[in-house]
């Protein structure tokens, strides 16, 4: 977690979006990946990005509205869990043409994207990409997945602070059992597995999950996990 601790220290001193972009560039260099990208859309539809893509590719992506066919964006809009690019469906002529253009622009052939849901309808996406082969990329994601999830939410929290001028999120306090239950779900455990790990019944587990959901004002369990992660209530 040395990278995470160092990154949090640097993020704490960020006072502008330009400076946030500098920190993103530094993170790319430390992780030794091809690119690091943070992009978000707030409740009014305004966009903000801190990224290491070339200006040419960024402009091309936006002007061509590639988000409408980008399998990564479409997958992240539908789910809360991280998305490994190589597990997506890249078939289809238009998608293949988009991929070829992205690779030519230096985006990389591997990627790991983390969708983030914030307050008031905010949606953000944190991505790292690489030119690694499959074996090297699998080793990277297995070793760094938890760290990347935490980093993504710390970045999103900083972006929210910069937009508002201060951190005004209501502090939510979860009980130890509520925290344990959501943490296990965030790690990918099923409800049965989580209940077994906590040595409780699935009925009791549901009580803890429902309590956390209500405190977080979440629509469902997945939303509760996402909100708890975004507010730094879980360590995964």
UniProtKB/TrEMBL annotation:
This is DNA-binding CsgD family transcriptional regulator. InterPro entries: Sig_transdc_resp-reg_C-effctor, TF_LuxR_autoind-bd_dom, TF_LuxR_autoind-bd_dom_sf, Tscrpt_reg_LuxR_C, WH-like_DNA-bd_sf. It holds the Pfam family Autoind_bind. GO terms for biological process: regulation of DNA-templated transcription. CDD domains: LuxR_C_like (cd06170). It comes from Silicimonas algicola. Keywords: DNA-binding, Transcription, Transcription regulation. Residues 167-232 form the HTH luxR-type domain. GO terms for molecular function: DNA binding.
């Amino acid at each position: 977690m040395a990278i995470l601790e160092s990154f949090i220290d640097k993020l704490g001193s960020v006072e502008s979006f330009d400076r946030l972009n500098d920190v993103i560039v530094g993170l790319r260099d430390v992780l030794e990946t091809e690119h690091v990208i943070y992009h978000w859309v707030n409740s009014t539809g305004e966009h903000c990005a801190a990224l290491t893509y070339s200006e040419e590719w960024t402009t091309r992506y936006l002007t061509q509205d590639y988000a409408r066919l980008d399998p990564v964006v479409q997958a992240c809009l539908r789910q809360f869990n991280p998305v490994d690019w190589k597990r997506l469906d890249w078939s289809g002529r238009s998608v293949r043409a988009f991929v070829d253009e992205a690779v030519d622009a230096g985006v990389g052939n591997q990627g790991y994207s983390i969708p983030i849901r914030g307050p008031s309808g905010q949606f953000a996406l944190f991505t790292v990409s690489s030119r690694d082969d499959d074996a090297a990329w699998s080793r990277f994601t297995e070793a760094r997945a938890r760290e990347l999830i935490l980093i993504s939410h710390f970045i999103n929290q900083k972006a929210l602070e910069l937009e508002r001028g201060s951190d005004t999120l209501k502090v939510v306090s979860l009980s130890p059992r509520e925290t344990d239950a959501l943490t296990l779900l965030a790690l990918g455990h099923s409800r049965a597995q989580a209940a077994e790990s906590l040595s409780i019944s699935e009925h009791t587990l549901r009580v803890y999950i429902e309590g956390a959901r209500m405190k977080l004002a979440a629509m469902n369990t997945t939303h509760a996990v996402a909100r708890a992660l975004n507010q730094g209530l879980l360590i995964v």
